[in-house]
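Reviewers of the previous submission asked for a worked example of the structure-prediction workflow described in the proposal, so we include one complete record here. The input consisted solely of the amino acid sequence. No template or homolog information was supplied to the procedure at any stage.
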Amino acid sequence: MTINDQIALLRKGAVDCVPEDELRRKLERSAKTGKPLRVKAGFDPTAPDIHIGHTVLIRKMRHFQQLGHTVIFLIGDFTGMIGDPSGRSATRPALTREQIDENAETYKQQIFKLLDRERTEIRFNNEWFSKFGADDFVRLTGKATVAQLLEREDFKKRFQSQAPISLHELLYALAQGYDSVALEADVELGGTDQKVNLLMARQIQQAYGVKEPQLIITTPLLEGLDGVQKMSKSLGNYVGITEPPRDIFGKIMSISDELMWRYYELLTDMPPGEIADLKTAAERGERHPRDLKVELASRIVADFHSQGDAEEASREFDRLFRERQTPADIATIEKPAGAIKLVKLLAGEGLAPSVAEAQRLISQGGVRVNGERVSDVRCELGSLAGEEALIQVGSRKFLRVVFK
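From that input alone, the workflow returned the following structure tokens.
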């Protein structure tokens, strides 16, 4: 690829590139010397599973790998014990060592669904911070001022509202900056919510004598399935990369036509020109949005499972929603005979996260029993032995209950 082509790939879906002209210089120097760029992205092990919102950044790491560069997947086992204050209105609880180790192991198992193992360094920042003495931390804190740290929007709001700001939180951006010193990073990637931290890292590198500090590239925060709020497990608007193929496929098919183009841009490697052509064809009526959504869902399933899984998920989706059939492999459980409230059954078997959510689903018409929509939150099942109930929640969750 020409340098211009490389820049186009790396800027696809990105928001900030600071300084803008430095990307070209770094790529040209790498091509001339044959020395790959060192591209860093840090992840605090605060949650055990990755959803497709996280993969917007990981995909950008893969783009650098495709151009021959080395990416560093940095697990912040030290900074995770501080807790990233970005966007927080309160102090984040510190993680225990056991939580960090467990979550980090899960990350390592999942990232290679997208990244090339041979071009990926997995590092932990406790590697250098465990060797830091009190004097090292004093020197590090001398690289920035309190005024600079309090300029951050999250700290500023908390300070003005007299909400607590713990001293250890002020260390987070400094520690993240020193990571770039220790790793000799040429480029650092992060979400737009990390921009302040990434810029601080450039300052820290300069303070430690790095002549050409890292370039920073930020990626947007992906909207969830609702198309409004940021994708989040806590909001339930996410797609987990380890979910079964048909669940991923069905969730992608549920998004709006407008959101589909955002997902094409951020969750596929299609060139922007090809995406623009698809959008034009849809606007002219030459391609149906549903068919384009099928192609998008198939691409995403293939990324995290296989092409065969994507084809099977597509066939299953057609069988369910075109032919209005139930899945072939519905889970079946047995329950002792005796009346049980439907809301408790939904919550107890994982079809709803709580009894309150089960009540909401029923009241909004999202639950069927034996094909009939249930509207009464007081509904009970299983009063007689031998009774069976086929429960459907939404369009994708099914459970057969046999009462003994």
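Residues 14 and 219 are 5 Å apart (CA to CA). We consider this example representative of the routine output the project will generate in years two and three.
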